[in-house]
Amino acid sequence: MQNISSPREQAILSALKNAEDILCKCGSSVFSQGSKLKKLSRILTGEPEDAIVPIPVVYCIKCNTILEKGGIDNNDSSSLITS
Fold this sequence. Notes:
- This protein has helices spanning 7-18, 42-45; strands at residues 31-40, 51-60, 66-68, 71-72.
- By secondary structure, it is α+β, with helices and mostly antiparallel strands.
């Protein structure tokens, strides 16, 4: 089977080859996906119990710093706990 891509797909692939890597403050460019959990009060949700809401995040696999929208949030000292 021949893999034929459209001119738009070819342009995107070409642009990705020259795109700048996003680096963590530790220098790593490898990230993974995880979740932060937020607890919402039952008073706010109107449910009989508090709600746990998962929030998707991307974090550095070397130092666990969470990548915020637009880049690394250097003011956030929180890290994702991995086990």
